[in-house]
Design brief:
Elements lengths: L11 H34 L3 E10 L4 E13 L3 E4 L4 H5 L3 H17 L7 E5 L2 H4 L4 H12 L6 E6 L8 H12 L3 E7 L6 H6 L4 E4 L1 H5 L4 H16 L3 E4 L5 H10 L3 E2 L10 H8 L3
Parallel strand pairs: 2-4, 4-5, 5-6, 6-7, 7-8, 8-9
Antiparallel strand pairs: 1-2, 1-9, 2-3
Protein name: EAL domain-containing protein (Putative c-di-GMP-specific phosphodiesterase class I)
Pfam families: EAL
InterPro entries: Biofilm_reg_signaling, EAL_dom, EAL_sf
Length: 281
């Protein structure tokens, strides 16, 4: 039988090829990151960003109580690019402070035109929270728009609590002192301990969408029930992210969740469409 000459990683030539491939991929990633960074800088001065809003629904009534602010990057071919495709790059540079400041100003300006009982929420990155610029930007946004601070909710992702320190806790409590509401995003991924939640001033726990996706399974229901009960035990409102169908909605109501958000209730829309949804009939 003739032996096949199959290249293996033990072959020096194959090892060299793997190294070269990794180097090319690394160079490509650096180049793409640099291009995106420059695109983001340009977008800040050319109205290249836009805000969309997704309704937040009170599950017991089915009515909207507000909306979450979502940042989108305008693209000539791809349309509106979601934040997950560019925000990690922004957070690794000084762009995040300027972008977050713009988002705050615009979100407050839009929300100030909504009925007085509607709120807006927006994600807050750990680099922005720790930048030292947030309080100033927040006060300017609230003063310029006239939005009451209790109508603004800032979200911090649960994994960020792993990197939190005394300065982070101080910053969160300072935000609470200004009257702004705080939400813990992606709750239920089990990064945060209940003891940590007790010392942090969150008013809302946003259930991670991965938990909601498993609601048709008995074990998934039990986990969500436990998380909802834990949130209520801490005196916090529990919001379920990623609600996509009637079954999930009904189960969440039965389990005692307070609020919901997802495509079942409506997709993200522009500020004009959001204002029209809030307008009286």
């Amino acid at each position: 039988m003739t032996e096949l000459n199959v290249p293996t990683l033990e072959n020096p030539a194959s090892q060299q090829s793997v190294r070269e491939l990794r180097q090319r991929n690394a160079r490509r990633e650096v180049t793409e990151r640099r291009r995106m960074t420059e695109r983001l800088r340009k977008a800040l001065v050319t109205e290249g960003f836009v805000l969309h809003y997704q309704p937040i629904i009170t599950l017991s009534t089915g009515f909207a109580r507000g909306a979450e602010t979502l940042v989108r990057l305008r693209h000539s071919r791809r349309g509106f690019v979601p934040a997950q495709h560019f925000m990690p790059i922004a957070e690794r540079s000084d762009i995040i402070t300027s972008l977050a400041g713009w988002t705050l100003r615009e979100a407050c300006r839009h929300a100030a035109t909504w009925p007085a009982h509607f709120t807006t929420s927006m994600a807050l990155s750990l680099p922005h929270l720790q930048s030292g610029q947030l309080i100033r930007q927040l006060l300017e946004s609230l003063n310029q728009s006239g939005l009451a601070p209790e109508r603004l909710e800032l979200e911090i992702a649960e994994p960020a609590l792993l990197d939190s320190n005394d300065d982070t806790v101080f910053a969160l409590k300072a935000l609470q002192g200004l009257g702004v509401r705080l939400a813990l995003n992606n709750f239920g991924t089990f990064y945060a301990s209940l003891s940590a939640l007790k010392r942090l001033p969150f008013s809302t726990l946003r259930l991670d969408r991965s938990l909601v996706q498993n609601l048709d399974e008995d074990s998934g229901n039990a986990i969500v029930r436990a998380v909802i009960n834990a949130g209520h035990a801490l005196g916090q409102t529990v919001l379920a992210e990623g609600v996509e169908n009637e079954t999930q909605y009904q189960i969440l109501v039965d389990l005692g969740a307070d609020e919901g958000q997802g495509l079942y209730f409506g997709p993200p829309v522009g500020p004009d469409e959001m204002a029209a949804m809030f307008a009286p009939a």
